[in-house]
Amino acid sequence: MKYCTLCGIPFTRSLNEEWIENVRAIWIEGTGWNRTAVSGVGRWGEYDDDSYVNLPADRQSHYDRESGPGPAVEVLRSDPYHVPGLVNAIEGAARLQNDVFLSRLEPTVQSLKNDSFSRLVPELLQNIVTLLPTSDVHSLRLASPVFATLELPERFWASRFQPGREYDHLPEVHDRPPQSWRALYHSLRIWTRGIPSMANRKRVWGLAKRLQATLSQLDGVSCKGDPLGTWFETISDGSDQNIHAADVSWHTASRAVAHLGKSFFYGSRVLRARALQFSEPVKLREMSVSFVDTAAGRFISGFNMIDEHNRSHVLGYQHEKTMSRISLSPDEPIQGWELAMDLCGIKGIAAVRGDGTLIGWAGESAGVPRWRLKGSQGVSAVKAEFDALKLVSLSRDKLPNQETWLNDCLWYPEVPREGLLFNGSRGDEPRAKYNLPVTTVLFGGSDG
After folding, report:
1. How do residues 222-243 score in pLDDT, each as one tens digit?
2. Pfam families in the record, alphabetically (predicted)?
3. Minimal CA–CA distance to 253: which of 164, 118, 345, 315?
4. Contact present, 418 and 379 (Cβ < 8 Å)
5. Could you tell me which residue, 8 or 406, shows the higher pLDDT?
6. How far is residue 357's CA from residue 346's CA, in Å, rounded to a whole number?
7. What are the distances in angstroms from CA 81 to CA 87, 168, 198, 268, 371?
8. How many Cβ atoms are within 10 Å of 279's Cβ, its own excluded?
9. Which domains does the chain have, with CATH numbers?
10. In angstroms, rounded to a whole number, what is the distance separating the alpha carbons of residues 58 and 74?
11. Cβ–Cβ < 8 Å for 143, 118
12. Which of 126, 127, 247, 417 has the maximal Cβ count within 10 Å?
């Protein structure tokens, strides 16, 4: 079976058929998922079921709607790498005689004395505006006579091209600095309006920064724990860890995890699996939960369980700067966890005692469906599954026929308390691997 590396669609037809020559698809064969091949360009066959693969029927057409492209299509088609006139603008930025950004007002001596900033020396005032976004500098100059009459130095204008400022998407200026940063700044505000390639550069740069911020968190970080084989990460068949893990019956909490051979257009996909096994139910003193920040929010990336003997048991990707700790009592062994599960991964976790009470949430829980991964005894084995940077599935060992409604599906807004009897008619049970939660409405009590 061959699969599209980008969306996961299986190619069920022979590759010598006409359609594979008319669709640009990136595909792999066998288990070599890091070796890809690319097909030709064309359209998807009209009788294919995967309607979300949306390509124009006309080979000459660059859009997929009869009404034609939207107003932003020229921006998307333009080359963000080459901005016409940018080099000339940098080289032609001569020094201005007058500061066009400087207020022409002449404040009175009294108004300057009433301004609290009048006590600061000009060098400190210039440092303040250099550290502020341009919009805040505008507001400050409107509110303060001292700042309104402050001459902005060249280093202020140069700072507008630093990371996080409005022209950080122009790294070329640092290779060939202009004669005047102030002149370049004002010229860019004028001539770059309406240039598609500059608008596309700014758009692509923003996306690249978000990707860089995510990937930089993985520098020097590996996925900890005893590895289990997955389709993306194979290990030797004779591994002792694989043999032991195969003997464990797992109780698993997961949501929107796309398995091998299934379409992957939302949710997550498991790349790595890690496990921990204990000779007896583990008694924990502390649990440190690590998080990773993504464009979709903050997710759990791994955790470190510290037992009663102060031994660490680590699973997943560890980020010391984003750790959250849950204090536990070894005298009250936990029987599992409650998880706040988003479609893209696990956002929060709390330990669960034997009576069902929770111990300290780490991460986000409000407004997120929850899964109670709790057994009838202590935890003797844990399996965690990850994508490239976060936790997407968690399992613990179980006894046969241990699952119930309470601990085997998603709940919203929270998991019902233990002791409630679910005696609905046949067919009320949630479907297996259902991605939407069961919503509870309880009648009676203080709210009626």
Report:
1. 999 999 989 888 887 655 555 4
2. DUF7600
3. 345
4. no
5. 406
6. 20
7. 12, 14, 9, 32, 46
8. 6
9. 1-69 (no CATH), 86-213 (no CATH), 226-439 (2.100.10.30)
10. 19
11. no
12. 126
- For the four alpha carbons of 76, 82, 88 and 90, in that order, the dihedral sign comes to positive
Give how far the C-alpha of residue 134 lies from the chain's centroid of Cα atoms, to the nearest Å: 28
Write down the pLDDT at residue 324. 96
Chain centroid offset of residue 47 CA? 35
CA torsion angle 410 415 420 426 (round to 10): -10
Whether residue 413 has a cis bond before it, omega within 30° of 0: yes
3-state secondary structure 383-446: EEEECCCCEEEEEEECCCCCCCCCCCCEEECCCCCCCCCCCCCCCCCCCCCCCCCEECCCCCCC
**Burial of 47: CB neighbours in 10 Å, binned 0-12, 13-18, 19+:** exposed
**Residues 6+ positions from 159 with CB-CB distance below 8 Å:** 130, 131, 165
pLDDT at 337: 97
Q: Which residue has the higher pLDDT, 268 or 101?
A: 268
Among 275, 87, 285, 70, smallest CA distance to 172 is for: 87
- Of 20-29, 331-340, 384-393, minimum mean pLDDT range: 20-29
Query: pTM to 2 decimals?
Result: 0.73
In DSSP notation, 204-225 reads HHHHHHHHHHHHHTTTT---BS
The beta strands (E) that lie in 124-244 are given as 226-228
Residue with tokens 């699996």: 273
With beta carbons less than 8 A apart as the criterion, state whether 347 and 298 touch. Answer: yes
Tokens, residue 168: 């950080």
Side by side, the strands of the sheet bearing 336-342 are 358-363, 345-352, 336-342, 370-374, 410-412, 438-439
Half-sphere exposure of 389 (CA within 13 A, CB side): 20
Report CA dihedral (147, 151, 154, 159) to the nearest 10 degrees.
Answer: 10
Radius of gyration of the chain from Cα atoms?
A: 29
Q: 54 pLDDT exceeds 50?
A: no
Which of the 8 DSSP states describes residue 108? -
Helices (H), 264-324: none
The model's pLDDT over 347-359, given as tens digits with 9 standing for 90+, comes to 999 999 988 899 9
Whole-number Å distance between alpha carbons of 438 and 404:
13
**CA-CA distance, 105 to 116, in Å (whole number)?**
18
pLDDT band at 114 (very low <50, low <70, confident <90, very high): confident
Mean pLDDT of the chain: 81
- Three-class SS of residue 272? strand
